[in-house]
Design a protein that fits this description.
Blueprint: E1 31-32, E2 38-47, E3 50-55, E4 61-65, E5 69-73, E6 80-85, E7 97-102, E8 111-120, E9 123-134, E10 137-149, E11 159-161, E12 166-171, E13 189-194, E14 210-213, E15 218-224, E16 227-232, E17 239-244, H1 262-271, E18 278-280, E19 286-292, E20 303-308, E21 313-319, E22 326-332, E23 340-345, E24 351-355, E25 361-368
Parallel strand pairs: 1-22
Antiparallel strand pairs: 2-25, 3-4, 4-5, 5-6, 7-8, 8-9, 9-10, 11-12, 12-13, 13-14, 15-16, 16-17, 17-18, 19-20, 20-21, 21-22, 23-24, 24-25
Length: 369
């Protein structure tokens, strides 16, 4: 889960085989989930285009807003405390201040990792910056990686730290689909670096941060056991949930969703393409994900929870025991709160969702009755 305390094992290479055939979900109508055992409430409605929500070691929700603000929110009172406003953030279209993650040993190593877009000599660009949290604010910025293409659309960007303390970064194709298949271009990739910005010796290609490629616009990322799951926006068809694997090609733009047309089958066979475990056509616009494995809401245990933008809902993706397939999909709060951007889970099992409607965006708490 996306809390500061990581309990998952290292995300290693999951060799499911090229063009794996796991009978993924096909986006057929989802069943309405029962809210009989749930209580939902608005914690605050004073956010503006929030992107990331995390449960912090201070028992607060840490939130980024695309305009450049990092805050924490008291879940009991809804009080918002601004931690920092990053002056060089440039919010343009879907860009701005995006992903954030806290060091897994935050109490002894109070580091905050953020990803944001800025203007670099007239070119819209993304960088990953590490800050130190001290005295209630962020100090000592260190740029870990720079020169990731950015655009008004398709920026990614979600961050996650693996149990062996590697930083994973999702990046969209930045509105140029051909970048996704170019291993020398950081757009359309999931990258993996050390927490000091250096490149791990066991990355797929020596000296390269690229971990996987062929991505269009992945906006969700979470570790579950020894697996790394990502949610990804499709084009006009085939939104996806993928299990991310070392060195694998995820197909875009040559493959959308499954390897099921003649051209796609040929490309998949030659290029070791990994298929998604869940797809949606028509598209729903999936964004942030987290993994629920608490007892507080028993019906959600063993599920990915997915915040959905276009279809304005929270989806429960019940995983099979092995974690390799989605057994069922249930929808919650469809249309009630508008576009949902990200989701986080507290140690006590409460679920927090942020919306992405514009001004007066909300932080919502869902708990078991």
């Amino acid at each position: 889960m996306k809390t500061w305390l990581w309990t998952a094992a290292l995300a290693g290479t999951l060799l499911l085989g090229a063009c794996k055939k796991n009978s993924p979900g096909t986006g057929t109508p989802t069943a309405p989930g029962s809210t009989a055992g749930l209580t939902d409430k608005v914690v605050t409605d004073k956010l503006t285009l929030p992107w990331e929500v995390l449960w912090g070691p201070d028992n607060k929700l840490w939130i980024t807003e695309r305009g450049g603000k990092i805050s924490n929110v008291d879940p009991a009172t809804g009080a918002i405390t601004v931690i920092a406003t990053l002056s060089d953030v440039v919010s343009r279209g879907e860009g701005g201040l995006l992903g954030m993650v806290l060091h897994p040993d935050f109490t002894t190593t109070p580091e905050v990792f953020v990803a944001y877009n800025y203007d670099k000599n007239g070119t819209y660009t993304k960088k990953i910056v590490k800050f130190t949290y001290s005295g209630g604010t962020l100090i000592n910025p260190v740029v870990l990686i720079d020169n990731i293409p950015a655009a008004n659309i398709h920026n990614g960007t979600r961050l996650a730290i693996s149990p062996d303390k590697k930083l994973f970064i999702t990046s969209g194709d930045a509105a140029a689909a051909s970048r996704a298949q170019d291993k020398n271009n950081p757009a359309g990739k999931i990258q993996r670096i050390n927490l000091d910005g250096s490149i791990p010796a066991d990355n797929p290609t020596a000296g390269s941060p690229v971990w996987s490629y062929g991505h269009r616009n992945p906006q969700g990322l979470v570790f579950v056991g020894d697996r790394l799951y990502s949610s990804e926006h499709g084009n006009s068809t085939d939104d996806e949930v993928n299990i991310i694997q070392k060195g694998r090609n995820f197909g875009w733009p040559n493959v959308e969703g499954l390897c099921n047309t003649d051209a796609e089958k040929a490309f998949c066979s030659v290029n070791d393409v990994a298929e998604p475990i869940q797809i949606w056509t028509p598209t729903i616009a999936p964004s942030g994900i987290d993994y629920y494995n608490k007892d507080a809401i028993p019906q959600w245990k063993g599920s990915l929870l997915l915040a959905v933008l276009k279809d304005s809902e929270l989806l429960q993706l019940k995983l099979n025991t092995a974690g390799t397939a989605v057994e069922a999909v249930h929808t919650f709060y469809k249309g009630k709160y508008g576009r949902m951007r990200d989701v986080a889970i507290s140690p006590a099992g409460k679920v927090y969702i942020i919306t992405s409607n514009g001004s007066n965006d909300r932080l919502i708490e869902v708990s078991g009755k």
